[in-house]
Amino acid sequence: MNSLAQYIADTLTAKFDIPAEFVDASTSYEALELDSLVLVELAVILTREYGVEITDDEIKDAQTIENTAELLLQKGVGAAA
């Protein structure tokens, strides 16, 4: 996992009590049973952490940690962030 994906995974385990053994970069948010409120909160966390606007709809559309990390890269967040 790159550092962006690792940050997202760590956030899901720390802030939303998802067991680390279930969190993988390619696991879908649906499989993790994340509801829309969690996705909104994750969007706020990522926006604050990286200073780029990311919405819960974009996270939902990305479907996985891996794709969300790629979305952040496309928005100009560096992989080493």
Account of the 3D structure:
It is built from four helices and no strands. The longest helix has 15 residues, at about 35-50. About 55% of the residues lie in helices and about 0% in strands. By secondary structure, the protein is mostly helical.
- N→C terminal distance: 13 Å
Structural class: mainly alpha
Count of individual beta strands: 0
* Helical segment count: 4
Helix content: 55-70%
Q: What string, H for helix and E for strand, traces the elements in order?
A: HHHH
Topology:
Blueprint: H1 3-15, H2 36-50, H3 56-62, H4 65-74
Helix pairs in contact: 1-4, 2-3
What is this structure, in a nutshell?
This protein is mainly α and 81 residues long. It is 56% helix and 0% strand.
Write out key terms for the chains shown.
single chain, 81 residues, mainly alpha, 4 helices
